[in-house]
Write a structure and sequence with these properties.
The chain is α+β, with helices and mostly antiparallel strands and 113 residues long. 23% of the residues lie in helices and 27% in strands. It has three helices and five strands. The strands form two sheets. Strands 4-3-5 form a three-stranded antiparallel sheet. Strands 1-2 form a two-stranded antiparallel sheet. Strand 1 and strand 2 form a beta hairpin. The relative contact order is 0.20.
């Protein structure tokens, strides 16, 4: 699973780890969300898929190493840009930026890598 908690200066922060190289994804524009989706039967409403996250530079190598067998036509790799998925996650959870900023005032002390 690529979502982890990192402890910095005694505080806990969520981070996204590349499922290929194991490094932190520090730039949302440089990351992807990837998953395998079956082709037969199509998509069904409410279906859930397990996702992985990669740096864009690691994406193809990750997919080829993770599932090196030839594609038999029953599944396909799918992907989204990480920045788009993060935005949709905020929308889907009804994120309120002003309320979050009020509650998390201490985040102004964060020194990013």
């Amino acid at each position: 699973m690529s979502l982890k908690i990192r402890i910095l200066e005694g505080n806990s922060y969520p981070v996204i780890i590349c499922d290929h190289c194991g490094e932190t994804i520090t730039d949302a524009e440089g990351g992807n969300t990837v998953w395998r989706e079956p082709l037969k039967g199509g998509r069904s409403e409410g279906q859930l898929y397990t996702v992985q996250h990669t740096h864009k530079k690691c994406n193809w190598e990750f997919m080829n190493r993770r599932f090196p067998e030839p594609n038999d036509g029953t599944w396909n790799w799918m992907s989204h840009e990480l920045q788009d998925d993060l935005f949709m996650l905020l929308v889907n959870t009804r994120y309120d930026a002003k309320e979050a900023k009020r509650k998390m005032g201490w985040t102004e002390r964060i020194t990013w890598e």
